[in-house]
């Protein structure tokens, strides 16, 4: 046998991810979580971590359980470890969210143990994932370009969850550290937590995954040459520099990091344009067409972020840009690629062993692109609307936009559910979404 | 019984698809060679992406389809990675389907 085994756990990760995204959007639409007026309030922290851990991190970790073997042509070191990470991270997330609600003045009384225990479980899950994915990657040295992005992203993930656990312990026991250290931690440390999580872990990993996935799906050249190496080198060094110098009072070094990272992402975006232009598959499927929305979101993020930094308006634009990064770039890329990945895994389960014995449908036959495309358009419009609302403090526009995003995400989740559970014709007992096979 | 020909084997293998691209493996250019010896067929083929989880299914599907050809008593499928597959290896029909000439 020459291929790698199908990941046993990826779909379970995707279920948690989609449920988390739907829940976060619901809380933001209802105004229960309000990032504009109370970023550090319990319910806002719930929505933030549903988005960052529940949605984005579970999505990427789930994808990596299948994607790392594809990249390395080696089977995942352990399927069991993949399940352990899923279980500990899901349980850890639930406890962490409950812990935010148990903070002083929160909705839950007591439960001081929830935050550190939840944070610890998440750290354990990440360490197990690093061991599992790391062992698989170690066997595949020397690494291809996308692997470098992923390995660096995983390094940032560890830093981010360790910092997160430190916050969780500090919030539970404020006397754990001196006031000066606590002030540093919740000042510089918080920025390092956000930069490390959203830019280091999520963005670098998504960049590497998108390089491989989009070249495969569009039949574009996979080898990116010096464009790819430059994009990786500049972005990784730049983000590392920002993270390290966030802890020091050396603004020049941090500025150099910003310039390098912005340069790296710009090179990456230009290379993605080259990739799309060089594709052999002119008529693209929905996932590849709509992924351009996520890349546009990343481009807008870089442009606006640069402008905000140069004009000293970072304070006003930080929140909208973080939102655009999480929902437009990472969220958009995730939702579009799930539309290909879930049908593909479903096809392997349902039809893989029938290949050669009877006629089988194509992966594309498991979805209805014409029916589902409007949801993606609505999602990206809603994200743009919400980003502007956050920038200009339009509370009701933001809540309406999150309502649209919720409707769009729910419709995409419905489409993916239908892939897994096709309707069956009452008369013939045959799925009506899949062509007759014989 | 007439002797089995390469074209009959290739025609039969058009029933096997690459599920992601949604096109048959013959027109995609994945079949590098067919050797017929009496009632045995040996096929040398490749895949679009090394490490793809569909590889094992396509390989065994090719074998299953070969075994179902009338007159074939034994079959062997060898997956190779050199030369690596390239979209230019597609047939004109497949290129037209994907939108490039």
Please report the distance between the alpha carbons of the first and last residues of chain A. 28 Å
The largest pleated sheet of chain B is described as: 3 strands, mixed
What class do helices, strands and sheet pairing of chain B give? alpha+beta
CATH homolog superfamily of chain B: Fe-S cluster assembly (FSCA)
- Given this structure, which CATH class of chain B is correct? Alpha Beta
What order do the helices and strands of chain B follow? HEEEEHEH
* Percent range of helical residues of chain A: over 70%
What proportion strand of chain B?
15-25%
Q: Tally the helices of chain A: what do you get?
A: 12
The oligomerization state is: heterodimer
Major sheet summary line of chain A: none
Low-pLDDT segments of chain A: 426-438
Structural class of chain A: mainly alpha
Q: What is the count of β-strands of chain B? A: 5
Span of the ends, CA to CA of chain B: 40 Å
Contiguous runs where pLDDT drops below 50 for at least 5 residues of chain B: none
């Amino acid at each position: 046998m020459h291929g790698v085994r199908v990941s046993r756990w990826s779909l379970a990760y995707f279920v948690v991810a989609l449920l988390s995204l739907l829940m976060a959007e619901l809380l933001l639409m209802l105004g229960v979580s309000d990032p504009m007026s109370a970023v550090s309030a319990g319910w806002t922290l719930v929505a933030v971590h549903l988005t960052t851990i529940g949605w984005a991190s579970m999505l990427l970790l789930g994808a990596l359980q299948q994607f790392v073997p594809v990249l390395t042509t080696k089977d995942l070191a352990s399927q069991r470890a993949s399940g352990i990470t899923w279980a500990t991270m899901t349980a850890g997330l639930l406890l962490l969210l409950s812990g935010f609600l148990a903070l002083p003045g929160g909705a839950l009384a007591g439960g001081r143990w929830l935050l550190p225990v939840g944070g610890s479980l998440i750290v354990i899950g990440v360490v197990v994932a690093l061991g599992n994915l790391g062992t698989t990657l170690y066997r595949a040295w020397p690494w291809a370009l996308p692997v470098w992005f992923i390995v660096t992203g995983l390094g940032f993930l560890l830093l981010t969850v360790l910092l997160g656990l430190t916050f969780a312990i500090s919030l539970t026991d404020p006397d754990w550290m001196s006031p000066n250290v606590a002030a540093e931690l919740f000042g510089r440390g918080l920025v390092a937590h956000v930069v490390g999580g959203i830019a280091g872990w999520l963005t670098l990993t998504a960049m590497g995954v998108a390089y491989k996935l989009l070249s495969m799906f569009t039949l574009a050249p996979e080898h990116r040459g010096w464009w790819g190496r430059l994009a990786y080198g500049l972005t990784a060094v730049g983000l590392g520099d920002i993270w390290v110098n966030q802890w020091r009072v050396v603004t020049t070094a941090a500025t150099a990091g910003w310039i390098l990272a912005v340069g790296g992402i710009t090179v990456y975006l230009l290379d993605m344009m080259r990739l799309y232009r060089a594709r052999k598959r002119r008529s693209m499927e929905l996932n590849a067409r709509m992924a351009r929305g996520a890349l546009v979101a990343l481009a807008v993020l870089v442009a606006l972020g640069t402008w905000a930094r140069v004009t000293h308006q970072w304070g006003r634009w930080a929140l909208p840009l973080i939102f655009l990064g999480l929902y437009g770039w990472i969220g958009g890329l995730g939702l579009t690629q799930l539309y290909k990945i879930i049908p593909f895994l479903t096809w392997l389960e349902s039809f893989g062993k029938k290949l050669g014995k009877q006629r089988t449908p194509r992966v594309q036959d498991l979805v209805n692109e014409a029916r589902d495309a409007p949801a993606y358009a609505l999602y990206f419009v809603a994200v743009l609307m919400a980003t502007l609302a956050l920038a200009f403090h339009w509370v009701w526009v933001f809540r309406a936009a999150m309502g649209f995003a919720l409707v769009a995400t729910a419709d995409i989740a419905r489409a993916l559910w239908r892939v897994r559970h096709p309707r069956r014709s009452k008369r013939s007992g045959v799925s009506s979404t899949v062509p007759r096979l014989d | 019984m007439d002797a089995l020909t390469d074209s009959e084997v290739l025609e039969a293998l058009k029933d096997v698809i690459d599920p992601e691209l949604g096109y048959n493996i013959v027109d995609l250019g994945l079949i590098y060679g067919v050797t017929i010896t009496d009632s045995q067929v040996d096929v040398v083929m490749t895949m679009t992406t090394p490490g793809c989880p569909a590889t094992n299914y396509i390989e065994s599907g090719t074998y299953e389809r070969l075994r179902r050809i009338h007159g074939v008593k034994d079959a062997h499928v060898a997956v190779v990675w050199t030369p690596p597959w390239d979209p230019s290896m597609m047939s004109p029909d497949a290129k037209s389907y994907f939108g490039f000439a």
